[in-house]
Input
Amino acid sequence: MPLEPSHPTLADSYAVPPLIRAYRGDRPETTPVWFMRQAGRSLPEYRELRVGTDMLDACLNPELASEITLQPVRRHGVDAGIFFSDIVIPVKLAGVDVRIVPGRGPVLEQPVRTAADVASLPPLDPAALEPIREAVRLTVAELGATPLIGFAGAPYTLASYLVEGGPSKEQLRTRALMHSDPETWAALLTWCADITGAFLEAEIEAGASAGQLFDSWAGSLSLADYTTHVAPHSARALERAKALGVPLVHFGVGTGELLAAMHGIGVDVMGVDWRIPLDEASRRLGPGVPLQGNIDPALLAAPWPVLEAHIADVLERGRSARAHVVNLGHGVPPETDPTVLTRVVEFVHAHG
Output
């Protein structure tokens, strides 16, 4: 289905923002920049707003989610808002018992590890997505010409939380299920693809101008496993969003060996973490692929001359790609000084 005529990108007065130009492969006069996990994390105004409110409850409160999305745009002058949410929100909206444990992350009371467990997973009622749609509408109304990027977790990362019962560095149970019971695995990934795909579609329909699929744990996979057991489901997750015609970004952590396969699911832009220089990523993908990245988050705590030289190097290496959006190679560390992020934005806009 095409976007509704009321979508902000279809307005007669719409001027394509620099970020969207870059996502579509056109280099704007000023290099765009935004940060993963920019919504909250390091901002004192975010911490004050979140007092007494559970993370998932905050994500599902339209006014609160909108305000948290807007805070870093106001504070730093970034070129996009990233919708404030969590990877497991679609799981919760489908009716699965999941909660965020401070200091640990998403935790499920009953992990999903058998064919019967997967068969019992409930479908996602489209009506359950209304708080997400409302939060996006509120945010877009405030952002004006600044675009909003839709947020969604990739099926593999969603599945890893379900199978492991919480965060895991190696996803041992997840990868074991992938190989020991391929039919159950395929059913689980299909369920994950459908709920996260509906989630991203709802954000875009409500006003987001682009979408990003986050595969936080794909770096635990071999290229063969990713290509065979994961990529088709990630492609399925994006089918609805692709039909809406907005640019789509794919990002994973520790996925340098998977870049071409991740791009091959049908996205426009590849996010690159800090482990692979952008010129090497461009060589692996080909010069026609716009790139996003890849400031090392650790260097946000370094002395400014060290960070400045690093950003300059990222900008120079980014010239090898068709277009470049500056971002971190992962998310903003919570202890980051917000004034540093603002200074990074100013430097990129002046020198990019």
Summary: The chain has a mean pLDDT of 96.
